[in-house]
Amino acid sequence: MSGTLNKVMLIGHLGDEVKMHYFDGGNCIGRFPIATNESYTNKQTGEKVTNTEWHNIVVRNKAAEICEKYLSKGDKIYVEGRLKTRQWQGEDGNTRYTTEVNVQDFTFLSTKKESMANVTGNIPQKQPMSGTTQPDSTRDVQPVNEQEQDDDLPF
């Protein structure tokens, strides 16, 4: 096999707000961490163990602006991209390295506000627009056949 593949797909929660940096010429870059979790049960002790991995995410230009506008800490996101390692000189003169995910595609999965609404059960119901009428639910009721009532199907 002569080809290689550098592809990362992650689903995780933002660990911080999107940090933006703007360059001359109008380009920009956004950076934020994503946490992914792995849970398992320790067979010896029977306790549930959760390990968290942190990933450094990089988005560029219009994608960065969209992420900054709509994402906040705690939001769930799917990202797809490539691993890239870069180096720089630290303030102490030492060479530093970091590995980042350069995003090529992303999807917002849920916001923190949506997640909290699901937990507390305070999901706002859509209200009908003024001037519309609700269908009469009694009109659509069909008589139930007695044979269908005795059926033991699990669904």
Q: Which terms summarize this structure?
A:
single chain, 155 residues, mainly beta, 3 helices
Low-pLDDT runs: 122-149
Computed CA radius of gyration, to the nearest angstrom: 25 Å
**Helix/strand/pairing category:** mainly beta
Helicity level, as a percent range?
10-25%
Write up what this structure looks like.
- This protein has 155 residues and is mainly β.
- Helices cover 15% and strands 44% of the residues.
- A five-stranded mixed barrel has the order 1-3-4-6-5.
- Strand 5 and strand 6 form a beta hairpin.
- About 18% of the residues have low confidence.
Write the layout of secondary structure elements.
Layout (H helix, E strand, L loop, with lengths): L7 E7 L4 E4 L5 E14 L6 E13 H10 L5 E14 L5 E16 L1 H9 L25 H4 L6
Parallel strand pairs: 4-6
Antiparallel strand pairs: 1-3, 1-5, 2-3, 3-4, 5-6
Give a short summary of the structure:
By secondary structure, the chain is mainly β.
